[in-house]
Each structure stands twice: as C-alpha cells, then as structure tokens.
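sorry for the late reply, my laptop died twice this morning and i had to redo everyting from scratch. anyway the thing you sent over, i finally got around to it. pasting the sequence first so we're on the same page, its 412 residues, then the predicted structure underneath. double check i copied it right bc i was rushing
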Amino acid sequence: MLALSFLVRFLLFAVPGYQLDLSTFASWFGTAAQVGPRTFYNVVRFCDYPPFNIYLFWGFGSLANALSLSGTPQMAYVIKLVPNLFDLATAGLIFAFVRKRLTFNMALLATALYAFNPAVVFNGAVWGQFDAIYTFFLVLSVMLALASKPELSAVTFALGVLTKPQGIALAPLIAYLILSKYRSQWRRLLTSLLAVVVTVFVVIIPFEWNNPVTFLSNIYFGAYNNPSYQVTSLNAFNMWGLGGMWIPDIQGVGFLTLNTVGWALFAALALFTLYFVHKCGGASDEALMLFGAFVLFFGFFMLPTRIHERYLFPAISMLALLFPFVKKSRLLYAVLTGTFFVNVAYVLYWLNAYVGLPYGPNLSGDPVVLAVSLINLLTFMYVLILMWDELKGRTRLRTSPAKTAENFKEAG
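ok and here's the structure:
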C-alpha cells in the first residue's frame, strides 16, 4: 500500500508546483551540497528554514549532484522526494501504532487515510512543501511519550521544532505527558530536559560554534518578525481570513495588538486543552491525548496571526490516527481534509497566476476564502463544544466500539 502511495505521488511530481518555491529549494540544495552545513547561512542571501533542514538539503543536494540532476527540470523530483518519504514514514508510524491496539484491517484503514489523503498528497507531491518532515517528528514524539519513553520523545520533539518552528504548538502536551508520567521521578524529568538541550546543540553546533543560542534565536525570530509576514493571515483560511488577509497585525493599542490577541487566544486554548485531557482521563487515555494534540494543531492554525495555509497539515495526521478510535473524529477528518485541500490548491493556483508580477495575490473578501474560513471556524467551535460536553459528562466524544486485536482473536 505504501508502494502504491509512493507511485501515485511520484506520478504527481511532474505536475508543476509553485516555481518560486521550487527554485528557492533548488538553490538551497545546491548551496548546501557545495559548501556544507558549516557556512550555509553565511553564503545564502536568504533562508528562513531552521538548521535541521540544511542537513536534508546537503544530503539530497549531494545526491542530485551525483546524478547530474542539479539545474535540470528533474531537480524538482529530488526536492519533492524529501517530504514524500517522510509522509510515507508517518504512514508507517500510524500503522504500527494502530496495529498494536486494533485489528490489521483497522490499522490498514488508518494508514490509507493518511497515505492517500488528497490534501497531504497535494501538499508534498504537487506543491513540494516540507511540512511532512516536522509532522513525522511530532507524531513520533507523541507516540514515544505515550509509550513512556520521555527522553526519546524529547529528542524527536526537539528535531521537529528544529525543522519547523510551528512544532512548538505541541510543547504543552508533550510537557504534560512527561510531567504526568514522571512527576515523582525527577531524574527522568531532568534527563528529558537534558535530551532536548543536547539535541539542539548537536544539531546547531556545526553551524555556529561561538554563540549557538543567539544563532538559533536570530533564525526563528528573524523569520517571524519579517515585515512581509507581520499580517493577520498569510493565505490561511482561518478565523482571520474572515476579516481580511494581509492586514498588518501590529495594529492595536499599546501591547494589545492583533498579534498579541491571536497568541493570547492560542495560550487560552492550550490551557483549556490541558485541563480537558487532565480532567477527562489524563495521560493514560491515549485517544484523549491524541485528540488533545489534534486540538493544539488545529488551534495553532485558527487563532494566531502570521499563519500560512499549510499549517493545518499536522492536524490531518492526528485525525487519521484518531479515526479508528473516536467516532467524532471521522466527520472532522472529512471536513478538514476538504477545507485544507481547497486552501492549498486555491492558494497555489493564485500564486502561479501572479508569477512575474512584483506583488502577490490578496484574496481578502474572495467568496471561496470566506466560505472555507467560515467552515473552519464552525468546525473549530464544534470541537470546543465536544470538549465542553465531555467535561460536563455528556460524553459526546466516544471511543469507537471497534474490536481490539485481543478481542478479535477471542471472537474468532
């Protein structure tokens, strides 16, 4: 099944993505292959991707050079190969996780829901974006935390954030999982924290020996505070998309700007999510923890400003994982797959339509944007209602009656 998924993706590699992105990636791959990680950031004129990506640029750029593909149209295949391999790896994680708990058919279904998800496939195989990489590490981090392997969970979480900064959305849940399981074992807490620190330094020291902390903060905050990014929505069909995209988010009174409002809303959601999982089952309830991870990913897409259209991507992985366990997740999977696909496909269409112009599209007020943003907002409110009803004991968030592997054998 994974081979078939890869074949479908490989055939879609020929579909042009966004030429500006592909040419930028090609330049980064070529530079990394030429100079290596040590001086990469000093040589390139611009790169807002965190350091773990540079190792991938280096490796696959070197592969492209060895195959004489650099500078040819086939370079797009090498670029698109990277996220799609990580997508298939995530699908493998989903299969392994579900198979240990449910029947083979259920595991196969959950895997297929991710491996063949049209929005996921489009994002990696057509557009060629790299969201699959940090998603893989975050999914693995959650699984390792649930499996009582806090140090490994901390390492993979750090790798996720070192790939894409939006991985920080999962930090409250990972911290809660580790603290809940080991609150009386301070040594495991310290080793988990140490694992994060060591991972960060191992990854970034080859780039910067003198001041790695400043080096990392400059990359993250330099990209986030880029003047061209300081807007309500960077083509994300979310809450801010209803009020108009590309509106400066530094507007406001004093410290109370649109940007701080967005982050305050996400902080409130994170606290509510932790309260929800703690009251309704805690760290021992795996399905509930996966649902909490989904809520954080979904909320990170919906609430803060400066969000790109692709930031809903990791939420799909959690919904595929939840599909066999939680009935209510199935409707969410269908709806958000549809809205995410429309978001990325519609934005890519308009980005390509503006190629060659000195400015990009502003989709504020577009009927498609308004409709999809409204559906996403209503879906987000529905998720909050599910959580509230569960807290109140009305149990609308039910576990699927699907038989576990053990029960299946007993019934056999």
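The CA atoms of residues 95 and 107 lie 5 Å apart.
thats about all i looked at so far, will dig more tmrw
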